[in-house]
Q: What sequence folds into this?
DNA sequence: CCTTGACATGTAAAACTCGACATGTCAATT
DNA sequence: AATTGACATGTCGAGTTTTACATGTCAAGG
């Protein structure tokens, strides 16, 4: 149900094609809400049928730009302002980190190091995105989410480093 | 697909009934992976049919305690060690925070303040859980996840406070 | 004894999500 | 002229998740 609000928000901020929306999810929204094109296109169609978004332009290769209508913006506003937030997070990485503590040190290290590599790759990606966003006058929605990511990820990274250090010190084979 | 690994991990750490598992998801795992009892019971049955968990005791009110079998632990280990992590996060709160930047300051404040209240409630809950966990010798898996939460949440809180301050200063009606 | 509330387990239909398949456009290189 | 790769949109079946329904136990208090 949240997908539709994500799409309403993005198309309210700037008209986008389904393809562009999929790109945005992939590059900027993936740590908040993941969606693939096979979900995005049908949902755009539904939103369009309900008059919450409309086609505002057609480009090359049969592409269509969608923008949220007044009704769509209203629906989005109501959801944001009036719905109680629910916490039903699904984050495989967090789950992995939790479960990793059940492994023996050697395996644990393997998993923690891979998670660290992933996180660091993501952090670099975010930094690139931050620079990009800073140069062109992109909507501030991204800027503040990037900022949140840049604040949170180093903390997670610190935790991972600590966990790795602990696993290393607890490694029975470390000295053999 | 992650649910089964969560269940394998929890039942590997200590035998649990479906009810207890649902409680754990609700209280400790909800910011990593959410699942409700209507998913947990059928999945336990499947795991049991596949020999990955087994009934290790029966208690009052028809309750059954499950524990991961050797095969179950092996399946869990393989998943953790050999599967590349994927990032397909679904977190409604993060999405809300992102979308909130599209609202006008007054509405934005409403939403941000509610998110802040939720976060602070969650932080208190975590603190309670931390004390509880510290007193009895609960498996360290929880302790380290609680630690992660206690590191990350204050950062998110700081971001929220900044966003609120910014929305307040940008409020056109603030001085009227 | 009766009621309430926490404990405890399940099912089924509807909704949502994923991965694979399918099709086609357009620009740049070879 | 043909190939390649990014652009672009879609569908379908299988699998996952949610919401609502459904049933029953047990302890404590009135």
A:
């Amino acid at each position: 149900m949240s997908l539709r609000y994500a799409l309403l928000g993005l198309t309210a901020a700037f008209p986008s094609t389904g393809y562009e929306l999929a790109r945005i999810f992939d590059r900027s929204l993936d740590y908040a809400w993941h969606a693939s094109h096979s979900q995005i296109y049908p949902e755009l169609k539904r939103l369009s049928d309900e008059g919450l978004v409309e086609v505002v332009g057609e480009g090359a290769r049969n592409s269509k730009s969608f923008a949220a209508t007044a009704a769509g913006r209203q629906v989005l506003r109501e959801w944001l302002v009036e719905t109680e937030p629910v916490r039903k997070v699904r984050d495989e990485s967090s789950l992995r980190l939790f479960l990793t503590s059940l492994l023996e040190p050697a395996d644990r290290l393997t998993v923690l190091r891979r998670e660290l590599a992933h996180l660091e790759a993501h952090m670099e990606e975010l930094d690139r995105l931050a620079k990009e966003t800073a140069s062109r006058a992109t909507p501030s929605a991204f800027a503040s989410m990037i900022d949140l990511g840049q604040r949170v990820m180093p903390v997670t990274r610190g935790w991972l480093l600590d966990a790795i250090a602990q696993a290393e010190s607890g490694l029975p084979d470390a000295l053999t």
Remarks:
- The two ends of chain A are 54 Å apart (CA to CA).
- Helices of chain A lie at 2-13, 18-29, 37-49, 70-82, 92-100, 105-135, 140-169.
- Chain A touches chain B through 57 residues (CB under 8 Å).
- The longest strand of chain A covers residues 53-58.
